[in-house]
Write a structure and sequence with these properties.
Chain A: Belongs to the GPN-loop GTPase family. Chain A: It comes from Streptomyces flaveus. The structure holds two protein chains of two kinds. Chain A has one domain: P-loop containing nucleotide triphosphate hydrolases (Rossmann fold). By secondary structure, chain A is of the alpha/beta class. By secondary structure, chain B is mainly alpha-helical. Chain B has one domain. Helix content of chain B is 36%, strand content 7%. Chain B has a three-stranded antiparallel beta sheet. In chain B, helix 4 crosses helix 5. Classes of the chains: A alpha/beta, B mainly alpha. At the A-B interface, strand 1, strand 2, strand 3, strand 4 and helix 5 of A face strand 1, helix 4, strand 3 and helix 6 of B.
Chain lengths: 204, 143
């Protein structure tokens, strides 16, 4: 077997013939949303492995401070992050990272999100405000994202236009309904994000 | 020096927390940290890591089990995130250790290409690959 002894960072494997030791090109997407909204369920529905959990550091910004002159307090927090993966072909592996969700904190996930193809913001229409932080984050970082309403038990309690209005997301942001437990539904929601990302990349 | 060695029952004060490893992460990394406020850009979490022949040949020479554990699971390509999860170590500790092992020629790191997130050919490959994934009833997406 031949191993790369000093691979150059950035030398991906796209054009190399896989020889068993050549790793796939890793790509990632981020699954965001409030606590308990179904992020890990979403990852688990399509991942080829049981979702794994790792500890990562993120910068948290205390939010919900009404006095705008108050400097938000930043601190580095260790959080548990769930993720899974899908081998799309021997040269391409998609990782799905669930952002750690907590209310009342704005999180800076740059470390996790840098280089992501896009984000899926999962929404529970009963607790819409839980996902504001995620929507704001992706908008601010200019990462292509879609909003997906998790239809618990196949029911959506609000009209999608009402959801768009309540979340105040731009018209170009795709909004979809999906079932976090169903592999085909998760696949289609991810495709909504990727097709939006592709359209965005083609315009550049 | 087994990380998973359970402490004596008297030491269990915090309930379901796993026992602290006997070797503290800061000892392994000699106090260095990755990510967070570090000035060095952190290695992407999806970076693929593979043990080299040199790494596999020197398996018995490592002073710390953690180094050997990393080499062992990297006989198959793994992401940094998977290594951290499987070895139950903090991602930023794995970043430092993996980079050390890379410097010593014992691991190969394949950092994802810059800009692949906005590369339309990469996006199209991911889209095509995902469409081929059947739903739970075995149906793939129409192209």
């Amino acid at each position: 077997m031949v191993f790369e002894t000093s691979p150059t960072p950035g030398a991906g494997s796209v054009n190399d013939e896989a020889q068993g030791t050549q790793p796939p090109l890793p790509v990632k997407m981020v699954i965001a949303g409030g606590f308990g909204v179904g992020k890990t369920t979403t990852v688990g529905a399509i991942s080829e492995i049981e979702p794994l959990t790792t500890e990562a550091s993120i910068t948290s910004v205390a939010a919900g401070v009404d006095d705008l002159s108050h400097t938000p307090e930043k601190m580095t927090t260790t959080v548990a992050m769930d993720f899974g993966c899908v081998t799309l072909d021997p040269t391409l592996k998609l990782y799905l990272f669930g952002t750690p969700g907590q209310e009342r904190f704005g999180f800076m996930w740059d470390d996790l999100v840098d280089g992501a193809l896009g984000g899926l913001v999962i929404v529970d229409t009963r607790r819409l405000d839980d996902c504001y932080a995620a929507v704001d984050y992706f908008e601010h970082r200019q990462i292509p994202f879609a909003v997906a309403v998790n239809a618990f038990d196949g029911k959506v309690e609000h009209d999608l236009n009402d959801v768009r209005w309540a979340l105040d997301v731009a018209d170009h942001v795709p909004l979809t309904v999906f079932d976090a437990r169903e592999r085909g539904s998760v696949r289609d929601a991810l495709l909504v994000v990727l097709e939006h990302a592709l359209a965005t990349a083609e315009r550049r | 020096m087994t990380a998973g060695e359970p402490p004596a029952a008297d030491d269990v004060v915090w309930g379901p927390e796993p026992p602290a490893p006997l070797v503290r992460p800061f000892l392994l990394t000699a106090g260095r940290i990755a990510g967070g406020d570090s000035l060095v850009p952190p290695i992407p979490i999806e970076t693929q890591v593979i043990a080299t022949d040199v790494g596999l040949a020197t398996l018995d020479a490592f002073a710390f089990d953690q180094h050997r554990d990393i080499i062992m699971i990297c006989r198959q390509p793994q992401s940094l995130a998977e290594i951290a999860a499987k070895l139950r170590m903090h991602l930023n500790v794995i970043r430092v250790l993996a980079d050390d092992l890379r410097s010593d020629g014992q691991l190969a790191l394949y950092v994802p290409q810059n800009g692949s997130a906005r590369d339309t050919s990469v996006l199209r490959r991911v889209i095509d690959g995902l469409r081929d994934i059947p739903d739970s009833r075995g149906r793939v997406r129409e192209r």
